[in-house]
Amino acid sequence: MGRGRGKAKTGAAAIEAAERQARALDLRRQGYSFEAVAAACGYADRACAYKAVMAGLNRTLREPADELRQLEGERLDALLATVYPAAAAGDLAAVAAVLRIGERRARLFGLDRREAPVKVANLPKLEKAADALAVVAGLLEKAGAGELSPDEAGKLAGLAGAFVKLSESVDLEARVAALEERHGS
Hints:
By secondary structure, the chain is mainly alpha-helical. The chain has helices at 12-29, 34-41, 46-88, 92-109, 132-144, 150-183. 72% of the residues lie in helices and 0% in strands.
């Protein structure tokens, strides 16, 4: 494969790139400038050396985190295996434990949808309080069509409501200031 975003993460070229990144990171740790790292590792310039060092740092931080996440997942699996038979037999305490293990597992691996960003297209722009009605109507329509969960639609509608309250507060403040100015208070 060619160089760029679509290249495979394995193979000779990927291994060579990872080794160059590791060497660049090692040289930088020893105090070499990015110019010197670029020259020693064959990068085009200091910016390329900087990118390689940052990628190497990211990898050295991510890999231990991935290993720890895997270890924690295995521990959760072992705990689940011990309590699941009792939960399946109707032991309510074991059911609660299974649910807690599942919740922890979902957080560990980012499985809960609520943690994912919600993208909502084609809603009216919310620029003034009067726009909120159309926005909430659009959210209800998307929830009814299954594009948003009712919970997501409710949270977004709550944000629209907060916008309306803030708009009203700003408007009220401006009116009070105008009245005070008119009456010389």
